[in-house]
Amino acid sequence: MKSVIFRAVAPFLTSLMVLFSIFVLLRGHNEPGGGFIGGLIAVSALAIYGIACGVEMVRRAIYFHPMAIAGAGLFAATVAGLISIAARVPFMTGLWIYPSVLGLEVPLSTVTLFDCGVYLVVVGAISSIALSLEERGGE
Amino acid sequence: MDVAALTFLALALPFVAALLAPLLTRLLGHNAAWVLALFPLAIVLHFARFWPEVAKGEVVTGGYAWIPSFNVSFSWLIDGLSLTFVLLIAGIGMLIVLYSGGYLKGHPQQGRFFSFILMFMGSMLGLVVSDSFLMLFVFWELTSITSFLLIGFDHAREAARRAALQALVVTGGGGLFLLAGLLIIWNVSGVTQLSLLEAFGPEMRESPFYLAALILVLGGAFTKSAQFPFHFWLPNAMEAPTPVSAYLHSATMVKAGVYLLMRLNPVLGGTPEWQILLPLFGGATLVIGAALACRQTDLKLMLAYTTMASLGLLVMLTGIGVPHAIEAAALYLVAHSLFKGALFMVAGIIDHETGTRDVTRLGGLRSAMPLTFVIALAAAFSMGGLFPFFGFIAKEEIYYALSGFDRRSLVFAAIAILGNALMFAVAFAVALKPFVGARVQTPKAAHEAPLLLWLGPALLAAKGLSAALLSGFTHELVSTPMASAIAGEPRAVTISVVPHVGLPLMMSIATAVIGIGIYLKLDRVRAFVATILADIGWGPDRGFDQFIRGLVRVSVALTRRLQSGRLEVYMTATFILVAFVLLVVPIAYGEFPRAPFFAADVPLHELAIMAIAVIGLVAVVLAADRLTAIVSLGIQGFAVAVIFLLFGAPDLAFTQFMIETLSVVVLALVMTRLRLSPSDHRPLAQKLPDFAIALACGLGFGLMLLKVTGVPFDATLTDFFNLYSKSIAHGANVVNVIIVDFRGTDTLGEIAVVMVTGLAILSLVRLRAGSLRRVADNDPDAEERA
User: Fold this and answer.
1) Does an H or E element contain A97, and which?
2) Looking at chain B from residue 119 to 138, which residues have their Cβ under 8 Å from any Cβ of chain A?
3) Do residues B484 and B80 make contact, with C-beta atoms less than 8 angstroms apart?
4) Domain definitions of chain A by residue range
5) What ipTM does this complex have?
6) CATH ID of B562-717, from 1.10.3470, 3.30.460, 2.10.25, 1.20.120
7) pLDDT tens-digit readout, B74-87
8) Which residues of chain A make contact with B658, given a CB cutoff of 8 A?
9) N or C: which terminus of chain A carries fewer CB neighbours within 10 A?
């Protein structure tokens, strides 16, 4: 895209949106948000970056192939379910631990891991579609 | 450990051995056979502990709950029938493992072969001890699959691949019949375990579904046990290495169908249908199999057709319903496993040591292979039913059962004598002809087989002799419990090796005399059968090819008709169906929603939002070019998202915002990529049908939504989630808690779908029109031309 303003702002906008998407992901359990919404925000961020600076830049920025990201997400979600089996409770039962990090109690759970998996699948699958469309669209 | 855990372990042991086999073979070479043979030995030893109980006529059951909510269990049933089978499978299996150590010595894939054959052993063991229907079916199909792997072991040859596929299609397809039959039996009786089923015998036999269940079960049994006209896969399966033929296609797997019939005899047996269908198919298979055996010159094929004949004899005896027939079937089954396994291994030895299996190119091996000759003769004596081998006892019992004077008995006695005489001739054609006469030059200089090769057949042949000499002991441990289990009531087997002068002995002598006659004139018999076959011209084997080719052709034609490959057609069809479903139901049942109730005091901002949505829609319809239409659709979507937000669904609104944004971006990208003309240039007449379909869909959805909202709202789930979201799942956002916790498994499935859809779209995007080429050629005509 030719607009200089857009190209200058896009990296900052994208960074902020990705940060925001992670915020939305993590707060999702108690307030509006979650892995699905967070993932969609992150995809929009990547799409903006791609329109502004080209798909090549996006691919370099996310480092992994988008489908590999999606695969990792599916793997994480499955593992989150399997941990329960290892703990001898039915598949997908949420397990919680409350470790103390720097004096602050941080609730961690298999549910969080699962939600992160959802986030990664959405980011990976949809951005791979969007990126490949953008790539060819310019030809 | 308790007996149940040990039994489970014993059933799992072959699969463990299959895992270890490639590694052991890499370390020890062909000598890994000695280690691997210990696994079946352990199984034999474990199951031998049930012997005292089973010999007393008791039934041992055990197992674990598998899916308790569906009443499905992993459970076993050990009685005279299954114990005999277990000992045959594991015992012969042990010898086969040793034999394959010698037979495939130095083969690069010997480890894989061990692995396959042990997997098969595990499947077969599971099949014969299964108590629950589902377990029976699973192991039944597993034997088909492992048999497929073993027949196609030499996968570089096309004949082997074809034979493997054919066996899989026929026996696997038969397995589906069996499944359907078992489902009917389950529905009629209400039980899912064989051990409980026997009490429902009378109920089963009087049920109106009896005939359907019987035919389906017979479909499974007849395909597995190679009954005419499903026999053709068995001779073709001789493409497999000889240990496989000896193990699967004579001693064990092909007997699974007979096992099933014997197992269900107390439940389904004894009816006129049973007593007509089984002897009819069995008798036909016996005669046809034995006649076809005479036609062959390949040692293995001769044996394969006599196996088919023997299976026919077993089916006939199981179904004929005269006194002593069940006992005869039990005796003959054991005898057949012993002598046929030995003979196949002898055929393998001859092939291995001389380089040919063609009986016309073999002769005078007596001096080069004396030990093999003795083994072969012992097995052939048993197969021919000669004194004093176990086959003799079995045949005496068969003729004892058939020596009635009514028309039915006479017919089947004649069939049995004819079949047995033909098998007698073939037995000696295999076991005597290659060894006597003048020495014939063979591709390899013949010499005696190594220990690993002769040990198995020697033990089996010796067993055929000792089991007969110690017949009292054999009957007490094996024959009587087995016959009782098949009959479903106590039966005593008393026949001994001492011949009694009477009608059965006369029939035996007649069999032997006719058999010797055929043996001496075998060349002429062979030519005669060949002429008949040439006159018929068509056989089920060719029929199978025609069936498969026809199937492919029909599916190609059907696919070409249904799949136009034009997106427009698919979309139109889909939406017409949607509109139809949505509109027909309310019209047909007159279930229109009541007129919606409009609140009088709608706040201004809500009205404004709705107006925006409507404006967006109107803009879509009126837009001059596609890009405007896409963006206008986005406007409508955003307006709806705001409505969600206003009515207390922030998560939904949030998602809707993002989806709308991305849809606009992706649609715009797709549009540029497809290089569509900026606007729709079709004349109005072509647009109108699309417009009508869209209107019908919208109307249908509107009516449905109004109807749904008219129903009183059931708040049970809402209350449940509100109550427990925080206390159980530690989350205040109910929507998210439902997605990731309460219904987490659903979400897992959904994200898997998202991922797969992404992959599919990605590959579609990557496909370039220029680089399109046919990935697979499924045109049946192309194959014929080649």
Assistant:
1) strand A96-97
2) none
3) yes
4) 4-137
5) 0.92
6) 1.20.120
7) 899 998 899 999 99
8) 37, 40-41, 43-44
9) C
